[in-house]
Amino acid sequence: MHVPGFILDTVSSEHSYPLDQNVLYDILILGGGPAAMSAAIYAARKMLNIAFVTVDFGGQIRETSEVENYLGFQSINAHDLIERFQQHVKSFRLPIGVGARVEAVFRNDGLFTAVMEDGLRYTAKTVIYATGARHRQLAVPGEKELIGRGVTYCSICDAPLYKDRKVMVVGGGNSAFTAALDLSRGNATIILVNNARGWQADAILQRQIRDYKKIEFLDLHEVVRIEGGDRVEGVTVRGRVTGEEKTVAVDGVFIEIGLLPNSDPVKNLVELNERGEVVVDCLCRTNIPGFFAAGDVTTIPHKQIIVAAGEGAKAALSAHDYLVQTSRL
Amino acid sequence: MAILEDKIREQIKTLFEALQNQVRIVNFTQEFECAFCRMTREMLEELGHLSEKITVEVYDFVRDAETVKRYAVDKIPATALVGEKDYGIRFYGVPAGYEFTSLIEGIIDVSRRKPNLSQDILTELGKVDRPVHIQVFVSPTCPYCMFAVRNAHRFAMASSFITADMVEVTEFPHLVVKYNVQSFPKIVINENHALPGLPTDTEFVRAILNAIAR
To answer: Is A158 in contact with B170 (Cβ distance < 8 A)?
Structure first.
């Protein structure tokens, strides 16, 4: 077994500067990924009264092992990168609420109130909404029924269970190739299936996995259904050119086909596009004055850590400008 | 060679300054230690040197049969966190990766003698009126599992009817088959009620109450 050292992640669950429901904050930052953390740093440096509320720290970075495309780091362990981010945020001694999801955000008399799943409410003059995205599902028969029984969306969590076993990875981008790499470390036999022609992952990731002997590449194939009763037994795929169907026996299916924005809590407040992303302009403004958004939950096309961090910084500076220009400070 | 890195050790020292009461870390290994038994024991002994509030007791799974029975330990490496009483908090397998956080935060909770839970959750847990055994199956690379383990251990502190185990399954592969573990975390309540994935506090408590419903 690979033991990934001893990870101390206490900031995710405990913090000594609690939020106060009776305070009117200048900025309420919702989310805990790179966009939210970067926004917190930029806002804190403006000496604004900030509240930071998140389920956990790191967002989707938590589900990767190594990060090799963040400026300043040729390669860094994902947890170490999160740790650096959160220590940076923590250094400003902000009130931070960790552990509860936001259920809804309302606007009343120009102020915003976020209602959390634990019933707590926080009010602010502006919001930076950076709640990120979650895994998109295939929406094929068998998928929902077999979640947790061989259908999985988290390779770093579940790859150790598939040591020496046969699995299918669905997707053609960076996440799919990263999942394949995670599985290759356990000597799994991998079938990589992509709906589109070819592969969209970065060339460097493709090169890393192409040397692995136990991988089969199957592009231009779509998943028709996932087979199994108590557990995954196979996957039926259809060739998009030939129309031929075949069932491949596998023990597990790792689905890495993109993201769904976590925009439900604000769907009745701000404009979303057809994919459910919060529509923002180049200053991270939404159609609601005072409500800003950043990172993977928005219409910004490239879902990357460094892009999200940049967007978070922009959102904080825009929120500050808004507070100054509307004489709300 | 030290198991814990200097940086982690310093962070823990700072966290342990807040320890309020004595915590006993009770570890079970054996004379001819498996690799993970040794790693676990050495790591715990290092923790014991980081605060005067922590004592580490090491028992032999074979020779110390009476203690093994008292703590109801059925596999090793095993670790119990004990305060003024045994709350039923167990770690089976090395608490490495993200589970190291579960261990450190568990020590802090036990030193406080009370779990960090909302009044609503405590009220619901007060309805538990018969034994509940929670097993949380994890892998050390799973970034979400620690939240399930933390809640299970907090629940064990809150209710004298509840015992809660973290089980690192790659060290106990037969349990993968026995409990049909196919994703992490997987929670099993009283052997036959399973919860795949990470539930919220409320969902977790509801599952416990459903499991013991008459």
So the answer is: no
Say yes or no: domain A151-255 is CATH 3.50.50.60: yes
Residues 6+ apart with CB under 8 A from B177: none
Residue of A155, A156, A193 whose CA lies nearest to A173: A193
The answer to whether residues B182 and A148 touch, using CB atoms and an 8 Å cutoff, is yes
- Tell me how close the Cα of A148 comes to any Cα of chain B, in angstroms: 5
Look-up of token digits 């009044």: B119
- Fold that domain B6-112 belongs to in CATH: Glutaredoxin (3.40.30)
Whether the Cβ atoms of residue B163 and residue A177 lie closer than 8 Å to each other:
no
Handedness of CA A100, A158, A151, B189 (dihedral sign): negative
Query: How close does chain B come to A112, measured CA to CA in Å?
Result: 25
CA dihedral B87, B210, B205, B149 (to 10 degrees): 60
Contact A147 B183 (CB under 8 A): yes
* Same topology between domain B6-112 and domain B119-211: yes
Which candidate, A12, A263, A38, A22, places its Cα nearest to that of A129?
A263
Fold exhibited by the domain A10-135+259-325: FAD/NAD(P)-binding domain (3.50.50)
User: pLDDT of A169-189, one tens digit each?
Assistant: 999 999 999 999 999 999 999
- Active-site residues of A: which are they? 154, 157-158
Task: Give the contacts of B11 (CB within 8 A, at least 6 positions apart).
Answer: A8, A10
Which token pair is A311? Answer: 């967007």
CATH number for domain B119-211, candidates 3.90.1170.50, 3.40.30.10, 2.40.50.140, 3.40.50.1240? 3.40.30.10
**CATH 3.50.50.60 domain span(s) along chain A:** 10-135+259-325, 151-255
Q: Do B11 and A149 touch (CB under 8 A)?
A: no
Task: Pull the structure tokens for residue A46.
Answer: 């403006």
Among B183, B187, B193, B198, pick the best mutation site for testing chain A contact (most A Cβ within 10 A): B183
* Half-sphere exposure (Cβ direction) of A202: Cα atoms closer than 13 Å: 11
Q: Is A58 on the interface with B (CB under 8 A)?
A: yes
pLDDT tens digit string along A115-156? Answer: 998 888 999 999 999 999 999 999 999 999 998 889 999 998
- CB-CB neighbors (< 8 A) of A98 in chain B: none
* Residue A183: partners with Cβ closer than 8 Å, 6 or more residues away: A155, A159, A162, A167, A169, A190, A254
If you count residue pairs, one on A and one on B, with CB atoms under 8 Å apart, how many are there? Answer: 114
- ipTM associated with this complex: 0.87
Q: Where are the domains of chain B?
A: 6-112, 119-211
